[in-house]
Write a structure and sequence with these properties.
- The chain is an all-alpha fold and 146 residues long.
- It has one domain (1-141).
- The two termini are 24 Å apart.
- The protein is 88% helix and 0% strand.
- The chain crosses the membrane at residues 6-28, 49-73, 93-111, 123-144.
- This is Integral membrane protein.
């Protein structure tokens, strides 16, 4: 697959992923305060079920394309401190791995019944912050690289 196609797939999937989290942390958090709890619980359940289906595909595309792009830059990744591009790409990959494991933690907490609303909110804000960091690192990679 061409680098350009992988890049477009990766960018679109990242937009969908970050956009979903933005709606979750910035929009739905305020809606929850305005809607009666029983109704919001039904909305959360329906939205959550749909997001699990959609986000599985989005994650597959963002990480799959990201791995393909990393392969194109494997030489830079072999020495992460040789250039600003390699350093920022390495940091971006570390944050992406962190996001992946944090979502795994969310799944484990949900399955075990140990997820509280406060923990859910904090974890989602943490993931959102990591993803904003990834976007800023990505921009810096190409801004400093050229």
């Amino acid at each position: 697959m061409s680098y350009s196609l992988l890049h477009v797939i990766h960018l679109l999937a990242a937009i969908f992923f970050i956009g979903t989290l933005f709606v979750e942390v910035a929009v739905l958090s305020r809606v929850r305060q305005q809607i009666e709890p029983e109704l919001m619980q039904r909305v959360d359940k329906a939205v959550g079920a749909r997001l699990r289906v959609v986000l599985h595909w989005v994650v597959l595309f963002v990480y799959g394309a990201g791995i393909g792009l990393a392969w194109y830059h494997r030489q830079a990744l072999a020495d992460p401190f040789a250039s600003s591009f390699a350093t920022l790409l390495s940091l971006k990959i570390l944050l992406a791995i962190g996001v992946f494991f944090t979502f795994g933690m969310v799944a484990m907490l949900l399955r075990s019944g140990r997820m509280t609303p406060t923990r859910y909110r904090r974890v989602h804000w943490a993931i959102f912050a990591q993803m904003v960091g990834i976007v800023l690192l990505a921009k810096g990679m190409f801004y400093l690289h050229w």
